[in-house]
Amino acid sequence: MLEDLTTAASPAPWPAAYPQGYAVVDVETTGLARDDRIISAAVYRLDARGEVEDHWYTMVNPERDPGPVWIHGLTTEVLEGAPLFQDIAEEFSDRLADRVLVAHNAVFDWSMIAREYARAEREAPVRQRLCTIALSKELGLPLPNHKLESLAAHFGVVQQRAHHALDDARVLAEAFRPSLRAAARDGIRLPLLECRPLKEWSESPAAPRIGRQSGPGGHSSGGYASGGYPSGSWRPSRKRPACPYPNPGRYEADKPLKQGMRVAFSGDTSVDRELLEDRAVEAGLHVATSLSRLTSLLVTNDPDSSTSKVVKAKQFGTPVIDEAAFGQLLRDVAPASEK
Questions:
Q1: Which pTM was predicted?
Q2: Number of alpha helices (DSSP H) and beta strands (DSSP E) in the chain
Q3: What is the mean pLDDT of each run of 10 residues along the chain (339 residues)?
Q4: In sequence order, what DSSP letters do the residues of 12-76 get, joined into one string?
Q5: What are the tens digits of pLDDT across the range 61-77?
Q6: How far apart are CA 103 and CA 87, in angstroms?
Q7: Is 304:280 a contact under the CB 8 Å cutoff?
Q8: How many CA atoms lie within 13 A of 67 on its CB side?
Q9: I need a labelling partner for 313 at 20 to 30 A (CA). Which of 90, 169, 236, 320 fits?
């Protein structure tokens, strides 16, 4: 077990505002798209100071092709005897209830979990999430990249089975504990984001069903390219009608948004990204999937990240605001006719 050097005689009291418990989660999936399914899940429950209370793991029958078997190792034959998500939803809920969900790239894990609960006509008992990528940035950890293996190596945690949900959750739990204690020691505010569960779900008719695998080594690609990397974003873009208003130019601080402005989004958001984009479109804004010199505004909760949109925004001098500020501006968008 990793020796935690961050606990040495810290004079600072534990922050009263910190959560009382955490659920460190990892899910393996059939792919990265909104119609993909969870095929295994693991939860490490931690107390308020990051100590492990217990852990739990289950495989899940996705009722479809398992996707990149060469990554997660779970074949059709193995998963056919596993329970369906609706069969484990209650126990999963017991593990998550009254805790902050912690994951590495938490927006992905939360989105997958929320969609599975919506399919099962249930609601996940999660109200807040914490991304360990965001926490590592808050701590200023000198990591070469944002991979879980890099975070683990920084804290001396040894990974045994990468892309196995239980081992990934264990590794993350062991790396999260010293991260949490370092944040408490330095009085850092945890980067908690709201989780809003989905209320309903409509399955895409094009979602592939479970069947014969036919990718590398006899396995289906499951939305991945032949090299094992995702062929697209986990959230496929949706075709939207053209914005009827001309682009009035860049957003100016202390002024309202104006119909026709081109708005791009980057990174994790507390409100589901698609809902946030829908609100922008309804207000008369143009939602851009990429960032260019014509973009009026970039919305991101992590302006110091190295995503392509943030990098381009800095290059082009594009105004950047966070999600909360954008939400306030959406309440009073100026008509396109106003000068």
A1: 0.64
A2: 10, 10
A3: 46 88 96 86 98 97 92 93 96 97 90 92 93 91 89 95 94 98 95 80 48 33 33 46 90 92 87 78 90 94 86 94 86 78
A4: SPPPTTS-SEEEEEEEEES-SSTT--EEEEEEEEEETTS-EEEEEEEE---SS----HHHH---H
A5: 999 999 889 889 999 99
A6: 23
A7: no
A8: 26
A9: 236
67: left (phi over 0), alpha (psi -120 to 50) or beta: left
**How far is Cα 148 from Cα 138, in angstroms, rounded to an integer?**
16
Contact 296, 261 (CB under 8 A): yes
Round the CA-based radius of gyration of the chain to a whole number and report it: 21
Task: Look at residue 271 and give its three-state secondary structure.
Answer: coil
CB 40 within 8 A of CB 58: yes
Measure the CA–CA gap between 19 and 109, rounded to whole angstroms.
Answer: 20
Q: Do 30 and 39 touch, CB atoms closer than 8 A?
A: yes
> What does the alpha-carbon distance between residue 173 and residue 157 come to, in Å, rounded to a whole number?
10
- Strands in the chain per DSSP E: 21-29, 38-47, 52-59, 100-103, 128-131, 192-194, 262-266, 286-288, 297-300, 320-321
Q: Dump pLDDT digits (tens) for 210-267.
A: 333 333 333 333 333 333 333 333 344 456 678 899 999 999 988 999 999 999 999 8
Phi, psi of 101 (to 5 degrees): -75, 125
